[in-house]
Amino acid sequence: MDIVSIDHVVLTVRDIRASVAFYTRVLGMQEVMFGGDRRALAFGHSKLNLHQAGRELEPKAARATPGAVDLCLLAHTPIAEIIRHLATHGVTVEEGPVERTGAQGPILSVYVRDPDGNLIELSNPR
């Protein structure tokens, strides 16, 4: 088997509208509608599919829970600019900038939380 990338991740959320607003307005993702009334957030070559807590689609994670995800997202935008952008949207940086190790080497990261408390790491490759 030769796995090459992640296509999508499913986030279970309390409020789909609040999640769409955060990920589109703050992180610049594109809202995508599919399968009738399903919503996702597209970025690069990936997307985040959204499931409403209590109304998840099958099959689903064994314990689909809002706030249980920790994602690292790579950005072309420099970290200093990301920090300024987050501040204009009232988003608190919980930690960073800090050096970390990503899948392909060193990264510089800041950490924020989405409306459900998911930990979102925004990173620049070094």
TrEMBL record:
Q: Does the keyword Oxidoreductase apply?
A: yes
Instruction: Enumerate the Pfam families for this protein.
Output: Glyoxalase (PF00903)
What the entry lists under InterPro entries is as follows: Glyas_Bleomycin-R_OHBP_Dase (IPR029068), Glyas_Fos-R_dOase_dom (IPR004360), Glyoxalase_1_CS (IPR018146), GlyoxalaseI/FosfomycinResist (IPR050383), VOC_core (IPR037523)
Name the domain of life this protein comes from.
Bacteria
Q: Which UniProt keywords apply?
A: Dioxygenase, Metal-binding, Oxidoreductase
Molecular function terms, GO-annotated: dioxygenase activity; lactoylglutathione lyase activity; metal ion binding
Does Signal appear among the keywords?
Answer: no
The VOC domain sits at: 5-125
This one is known as Probable ring-cleaving dioxygenase
Species assigned in the record: Thiobacillus denitrificans (strain ATCC 25259 / T1)
